[in-house]
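Annual report, structural modelling task.

Input specification for the pyridoxal-5'-phosphate complex:
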Amino acid sequence: MPKQNTATKNLRPIILELHQYTAGKSIIEIANKYNLDPKQILKLGSNENILGSSLKAKIAATFALEKVNIYPEVTSEELANKIKKVNKLKNVDVVVGNGMDHIFEMVARLFLNNDDETIISVPTFTCYELATLWAGAVPRLIPLAKDGYQMNVKRILNAINKRTKIIFICSPNNPTGNLMRTEDIKTILENTDKIVFLDEAYSEFSGVTLTSWIEKYPNLIIGRTFSKLYGLAGYRVGYAFIHKSIASYYFNSITPFVVSRPAQAAALHALDDTSFVNKTLKMVREAKEFYYKELSKAGISYLPTDANFITIQTAPQLSKDVADKLMAKGIITRECSAFGTGGNKLLRITLGTREQNERVLNELKLLFS
Ligand SMILES: Cc1ncc(COP(=O)(O)O)c(C=O)c1O
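The model returned the following structure:
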């Protein structure tokens, strides 16, 4: 008689409750679903760099293939040192991960025991909640203020208890696009010694960063990524600025070799390609102004953005319905139900070239007329 498969009973209880991360849709998925030519599809649902990535970075990655039989540096030291040098920070170390997503997991590994708590203001990027759950800890979700999507600082401070370990803050916030008020972040840091993880994935587009604060607030960790401005999402390189007093514990806990040799080389050289960076920033700036003007003319509500995407308010329509209709026309956007409170009426669109933006706006105007 075949042995009954009871392998699942070994799973941790929390794992039985999880659902797979909902990523933005891929071109091939949509081409197949709607019988469209993949070349005609606009992928504007994941805030990637529409201009591609730096040629210097790609060449460096290709050269790195020569040594791909050799393990990469354990902690991406050369890249970390370069980031440190570029940012000129004192008492601050840089840790590099397999995307910032991996750094959330590392931070959870460092600080969270079973039943500890994290505080997350929603709607926001879902990976903070996932990293918390994977660690067996409990996410406490606090809605952002409806008006302006700023943090509810009083509620955050009131929610802190002895089990609280990490407060996640996303600024500019995904999916609402706005910077969190600097005074609010300061108030939180002045009133707690819990870890404050500030996600600055989109900070280069806003020109605002709080990295210089880490020296004063050793409990502040700031995450960044090469996936957005630098266009290296496919290589998976993220990093974080972390106070020297905790950095050695981070290095002691790290999974070795998480960033591949070509990925490290690409990131290292992407930092030097100021012309690609400036071209991207210019495109995003122009796209933002264009969207503001055209959406206002069409009477479509939008959230002002400090990132490389713009989020529109779809009410009374559900964002899922609008996203489906756009998808049928070959335009992939991101409906934000998975991001928490109110996300089901928010639709996020990556800012693109003039031609791409015109195509999206023409379709939106038809859907909202
Ligand atoms: C706010 C935010 N943080 C982090 C990430 C993930 O970054 P990475 O690609 O480096 O894992 C994203 C990706 O969309 C994001 O929006």
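The domain at 21-52+274-367 is CATH 3.90.1150.10 (Aspartate Aminotransferase, domain 1).
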